[in-house]
């Protein structure tokens, strides 16, 4: 039956039920039943059926159901027969479906009809008022008087009428429950009328049904199939388990939940942990209304509880309590299985597609746009550096197509842009400008930096094609320590790597991340690493000494929690799949256990005389006018590369003010200022010697 056909049938049944109810109530009014509406045209108030249907139907007068002309004695029987005939449609009328799904008895169903009729038939109030003992509104007492087989248990708070909030009870003061006024819940009235939509009170808390969250890879589809199998087993045993979706990638977990729900013909709604009510009465109302919706609509809920560990006690307690209730199909997205017991649950880890699946997806994207080309190397490079879902890959491909230029570089750039919005909130983004020619380092340090670049480019071949990913128990990312005094080129080296790899560079000041509040440091670090897992950025941890010093012997609780922070960071670095660089001024403060977990240790020594000379030569931009510079003599000053850059910049500004060129006197003046800033002793004779050399 079409939707329109079912609505017509539902309205006919509802009109017949209202006629039957009106005759039943009329029989309770003192006087002759013959006072009822004329035989053959028994119906609700004029125009009611027309309002239901939006127009006339089946030839009957508006607002009436065509009946044979009975005698007044069997009028109620004829109306009952017409009601039963109207009920024989497929699917069943909404009232009968609701009664079946919620386990209502005939008495409870008719009591609900009595309350619904008060909303649909304005004349019912006057009819009820004419009944002895009735005050003009529906009540349990009136239902027990009007309907056959009344049951006291229908009044129980554990029966559906009250437990599922099908009725609202107005019981002021000492009014007995049986005499209290009853009103059908608006959501139930709409449902019985045929308008079956989510309760507005729930809609204020829940996100809209998830749109298509993208296709799943083969490995993710396998996880979805395993979840569906567990749900079927649970349903057969009489209790559907809560599905715990474990892992860090919210997008993949949402996609898996969406596919499972779609396979079970459930509409999936989202609920954030922060939106769960904490007041017990509100939480109880939410749970009961949601239970009602699972019976009316066929819905499922996906609770995003990824931050439950750091949530307040009230929020976490509300989540725990909510998951003990029978809420139908429930997915809970968490990073790890909660420590508190959850009896009826099934947990599974949801990850992004495997590197091989990502490579195949990149191959499909590239081949679709250039079928003749060989894209194996590009696909392997993208899959080796970035960890994306299939939906992310499609999104990147769409954005890259809209940009002019060769496709592979545009794909790389768009991949880097994916993680930028989240990382911009957590770290300082640096614009890398330095390249290999700007670096002045010993050969060993330069070689190590180039090895980092080489390993990034060859990650897919070594880890996947050659099978090292199956052998390694630690993460597949690249971690490096840059050790050296301030100004020796650590930040510049990070910029060179970012430029060489075409990745974004984010600076994290660990001294700012370390919190005095227990647990906050781990929370800050977790957010940072999670945001960078897509692989589009280099994380450059400056001031690593704030957290990476020697783990102290535990003497008090502060020492214990400080060591927990260090251990957590070491754990995250091992599992991190991207590139993390740590900068420290005190390599000697790092303990041996920490050093073993780093793949590269690059030493940045204080520059000697030849290195300083080269730094002075590179300090001034090629377009800066200069005259009479003696780099050999300038290199005699014991300064780091950072100090030299600062001196050159200050001298350039001084030359600009004089509208002249950078000269030895200007450089010497800026050098003297820099030395004073560093609280270093100034040998004026050395300055005079250099000045005389500069004038010769």
Automatic annotation (TrEMBL):
- What's one GO MF term for it? ATP hydrolysis activity
Keyword Nucleotide-binding (UniProt): yes
Q: Which UniProt keywords apply?
A: ATP-binding, Nucleotide-binding
* Cited InterPro entries: 26S_Proteasome_ATPase, AAA+_ATPase, ATPase_AAA_core, P-loop_NTPase, WHD
From what superkingdom does this record's organism come? Bacteria
Q: Where is the AAA+ ATPase domain?
A: 476-608
Q: Does the keyword ATP-binding apply?
A: yes
Family statement drawn from the similarity comment of this UniProt entry: Belongs to the AAA ATPase family.
- Protein name, as recorded: ATP-binding protein
Write down the species. Answer: Chitinimonas arctica
């Amino acid at each position: 039956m079409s939707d329109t056909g079912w609505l017509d049938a539902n309205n006919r049944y509802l009109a017949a039920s209202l006629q039957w109810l009106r005759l039943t109530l009329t029989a309770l009014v003192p006087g002759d039943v013959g006072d009822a509406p004329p035989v053959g045209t028994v119906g609700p108030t004029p125009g009611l059926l027309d309002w239901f249907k939006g127009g006339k139907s089946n030839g009957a007068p508006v607002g009436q159901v065509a009946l044979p002309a009975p005698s007044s004695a069997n009028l109620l029987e004829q109306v009952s027969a017409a009601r039963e005939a109207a009920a024989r449609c497929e699917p069943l009328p909404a009232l009968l479906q609701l009664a079946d799904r919620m386990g209502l008895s005939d008495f409870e169903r008719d009591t609900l009809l009595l309350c619904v009729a008060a909303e649909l038939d304005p004349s019912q109030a006057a009819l009820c008022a004419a009944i002895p003992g009735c005050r003009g509104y529906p009540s349990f007492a009136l239902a027990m008087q009007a309907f056959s087989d009344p049951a006291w248990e229908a009044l129980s708070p554990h029966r559906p009428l009250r437990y599922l909030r099908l009725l609202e009870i107005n019981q002021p003061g000492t009014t007995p429950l049986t005499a209290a006024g009853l009103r059908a819940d608006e959501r139930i009235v709409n449902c019985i009328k045929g308008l079956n939509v989510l309760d507005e009170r729930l809609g204020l808390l829940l996100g809209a049904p998830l749109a298509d969250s993208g296709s799943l890879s083969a490995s993710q589809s396998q996880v979805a199939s395993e979840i569906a199998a567990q749900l079927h087993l649970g349903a057969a045993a009489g209790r559907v388990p809560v599905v715990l979706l474990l892992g860090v990638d919210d997008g993949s977990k949402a996609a898996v939940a969406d596919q499972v729900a779609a396979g079970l013909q459930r509409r999936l709604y989202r609920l954030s942990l922060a939106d769960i009510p904490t007041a017990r009465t509100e939480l109880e109302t939410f749970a009961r209304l949601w239970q009602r919706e699972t019976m009316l609509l066929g819905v499922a809920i996906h609770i995003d509880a990824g931050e439950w560990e750091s949530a307040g006690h009230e929020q976490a307690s509300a989540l725990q309590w909510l998951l003990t209730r029978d809420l139908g199909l429930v997915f809970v997205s968490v990073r790890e299985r909660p420590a508190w017991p959850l009896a009826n649950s099934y947990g599974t880890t949801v990850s992004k597609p495997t590197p091989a699946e990502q490579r195949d997806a990149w191959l499909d994207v590239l081949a679709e746009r250039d079928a003749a080309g060989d894209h194996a190397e590009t696909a392997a490079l993208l899959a080796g550096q970035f960890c994306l879902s299939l939906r992310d890959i499609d999104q990147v491909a769409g954005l890259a197509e809209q940009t002019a230029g060769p496709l592979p570089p545009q794909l790389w750039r768009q991949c880097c842009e994916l993680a930028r919005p989240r990382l911009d909130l957590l770290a300082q983004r640096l614009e890398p400008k330095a390249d290999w020619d700007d670096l002045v380092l010993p050969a060993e340090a330069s070689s190590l930096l180039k090895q980092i670049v080489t390993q990034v480019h060859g990650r897919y071949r070594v880890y996947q094609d050659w099978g090292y990913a199956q052998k390694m128990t630690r993460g597949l990312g690249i971690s490096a320590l840059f050790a050296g005094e301030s100004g020796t080129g650590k930040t510049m080296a990070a910029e060179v790597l970012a430029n060489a790899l075409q990745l974004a560079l984010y600076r994290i000041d660990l001294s700012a991340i370390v919190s005095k509040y227990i647990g906050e440091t781990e929370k800050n670090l977790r957010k940072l690493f999670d945001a960078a897992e897509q692989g589009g950025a280099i994380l450059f941890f400056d001031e690593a000494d704030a957290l990476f010093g020697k783990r102290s012997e535990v003497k008090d609780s502060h020492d214990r929690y400080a060591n927990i922070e260090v251990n957590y960071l070491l754990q995250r670095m091992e599992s991190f799949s991207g590139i993390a660089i740590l900068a420290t001024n005190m390599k000697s403060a790092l303990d041996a256990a920490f050093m073993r977990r780093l793949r590269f240790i690059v030493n940045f020594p204080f520059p000697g005389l030849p290195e300083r000379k080269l730094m002075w030569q590179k300090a001034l931009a090629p377009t800066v006018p200069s005259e009479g510079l003696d780099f050999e003599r300038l290199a005699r000053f014991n300064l780091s590369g950072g100090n030299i850059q600062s001196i050159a910049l200050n001298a350039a500004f001084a030359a600009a003010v004089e509208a002249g060129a950078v000269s030895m006197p200007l450089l010497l003046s800026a050098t003297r200022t820099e030395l004073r800033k560093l609280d270093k002793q100034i040998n004026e004779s050395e300055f005079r010697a250099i000045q005389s050399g500069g004038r010769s």
